[in-house]
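cron nightly-structures :: item 1 of 1
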Amino acid sequence: MTILPSLALGFALGVRHATDADHIAAIGTIVAHRKSARGAALVGAAWGLGHSASVLVVGGALVLLRVPMPVRIALALEFVAAMMLIALGARAILAHRHDASPASTTRPLVVGVIHGLAGSAVLALLVLGTTTSALAAAVYLLCFSVGTIGGMALVTVLLTLPTRLDAVRALSFGRGVRVVAGVASVAIGLAMAHRIGVRDGLFGATPLWPQ
């Protein structure tokens, strides 16, 4: 993998990574009631920054040392992400409206960190399998992170578009989106938890890498 392909591929895959179903479900529970595109973009960027911090620190260390993360630890981190999705979904379903509240970046930052930790092991293996150059690997991870930040900022802005309706319709739509995002987040979290705990054997004697 040379530098220029690393730039393009890393950025493109970072944008694509931001649109994963579990990521959209999680961020959807946070921005469903937002009307401000700027506020939503800040929330998305905060998620991307948290995700990127995990990827660059943990994934970067694994690539630099050229070692894989122990399978059980990798699965445990994914399981934590699954539990987080369930909690976010339940909160979105049960919570009252907070339309007037400011766009806090703390929660999406933490959510991004956890998602980044959960994906660092697989990303590090991908980089290790495609390059032997430390510089190319570093450029790839950096561009992947930039793409993820930009991609999630765009996703969160798009999620606010339907709320630019008249007040009554926007309120009704916002509630609906929040519930749908919450149900999706819970469903995805439960599916992930079952896959990690049962199929991949997190709690068994011999855990396996997800296929």
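cron nightly-structures :: done
The chain has one domain: 3-199.
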